[in-house]
Amino acid sequence: MAQIRLKILPSVRCLFDKLVQLKVEGLAPHKTVELRSRLVDDKGVVFKASALYKADEKGLVDVSSAPSLSGSYTGVEPMGLWWFMVPDTPHKKIVKKNVMSPTLVDITVHNGVTGEVLACETNEREYLTEGMRRIPVQDGRVRGVLFIPPGKGPFPGIIDLYILGGGLNEQRASLLANKGFVVLALAYYGYQDLPKNPKNLDLEYFEEAVNFLQKHPEVRGPGIGVISMSHSGALALSMASFLSGITATVCINGCSGNTVIPLHYKDIVIPPLPPVYWKLKIRKSWLIDIRDVTPDPTLKKNRASLIPIERASCHFLFAVSEDDHNWRSAFFAEQAASILKSHGKQSFEWEELWCLVGSQKHILKLSWTYGSVSKSSLINT
Buried b / exposed e across 308-346, counting CB within 10 Å, b at 16+? Predict the structure, then answer.
């Protein structure tokens, strides 16, 4: 037991979005061991995964090349112990409120027969690189947190939108800043002195945020980018359509029409799409499936809710996954692309993601093409 070593390479400390290599050395040849992962999020919810492995003739288990025989997943999954974690409390997602501290993932090696603990290690998954600046923002009405990367600026600027549910989400913004962007994680309601339950989306508030970021001395202008997800997708499309200075927009699993509450900009009001409640489904797990509740915004009766993205002059990236049961994400992305094409615009790209549902991995497409450029990626959702 003293000779058994669990290694997390290249280091036990890494950024949250980095891959690591997991090895167990010093085992008896062909010995079976169970590897377990455990994470406790900022709300105290426990997430776990496990997998059974068999050592090779040298007594080594290299998770990057060895297949899991059973457990939360099977086959070769280098990051399976991270990606396949599920909560002890059903239907919870990992919550990270404080990006100044790492997310800790405990990895343990157990005897495959007796369950005895043979080795353990903790992977510290951080959000900020050394030298990163996290600056709370209170500028006019604008509230949020600004992340400025280390090094000599100015840097490209991005507004990160994830507003549904209120509060402020900083994880993605901090990780993007590590790539060399100044990122403003923007709040809209339920945060500090912002309203708790706004009656509409005030696009002029978001225009103030754009102006704030454009004028910041660490931001290289004149244009900035916007990244959004889910309900915030239509908001990002609206910003690109009505506001000046937006040169790139990323919409992840969003809708091409406005939803939930009216969107206001000066004398323009875009009403929300009326939900089709009879299309709501309740799954066996008691999850509510609202995938088909949002109607087609291009239908004549719904057209007032359609975001006029043909007005935009920026570059779009639509990222979708078919297993997002909040929207018909691919349908809405195709719709937006079709609208742009019909107005003679080719400034968009498309990417389909793979995602995990329970212990099942759904790989939809690992590449996108635009013009003569072809790229591939693997995204851990």
Answer: ebeebebbbbbbbbbbbbbbbbbbbbebbbebbeeeebe
Tell me the range of 77-81, 163-167, 273-277, 325-329 where mean pLDDT is highest.
77-81
Q: Is 331 strand, coil or helix?
A: helix
CA dihedral (330, 333, 335, 341) in degrees, to 10, reads -130
CA 177 from centre of chain: 14
Provide the 8-state DSSP code for 169.
-
What residues have CB less than 8 Å from 230, skipping those under 6 apart? Answer: 162, 164, 252, 253, 254, 324, 326, 327
Pairing of strands 61-62, 133-139: unpaired
DSSP-assigned beta bridge partners for residue 373: 370
Q: Is the pTM of this model over 0.85?
A: yes
Q: Which residues contact 249 (CB under 8 A, 6 or more apart)?
A: 225, 226, 227, 228, 236, 237, 239, 240, 312, 314, 315, 316, 317
Nearest-angstrom CA–CA distance, 126 and 206: 29
The residues facing 23 across adjacent strands are: 7, 62
Phi, psi dihedrals of residue 133, rounded to the nearest 5° = -105, 130
Handedness of CA 96, 204, 225, 152 (dihedral sign): negative
Q: Which three-class secondary structure state does DSSP give residue 87?
A: strand
Determine the Cα–Cα distance for residues 196 and 166; give it in Å rounded to an integer. 8
**Burial state string for 110-131 with b = 16 or more CB within 10 A and e = fewer than 16:** bbbeeeeebbeeebebbbbeee
CA distance 138 to 358: 40
Residue 7: partners with Cβ closer than 8 Å, 6 or more residues away? 21, 22, 23, 24, 25, 121
Instruction: Give the pair of three-digit tokens for residue 65.
Output: 């090349």
207 by Cβ neighbours in 10 Å (0-12 / 13-18 / 19+) ranks as middle
Block residue for tokens 């989400």: 169
User: How confident is the model over 220-232, as a mean pLDDT?
Assistant: 91
Lowest mean pLDDT among 100-104, 258-262, 351-355: 351-355
Between CA 71 and CA 53 the distance in angstroms is: 9
Q: Which residue has the tokens 């008691």?
A: 286
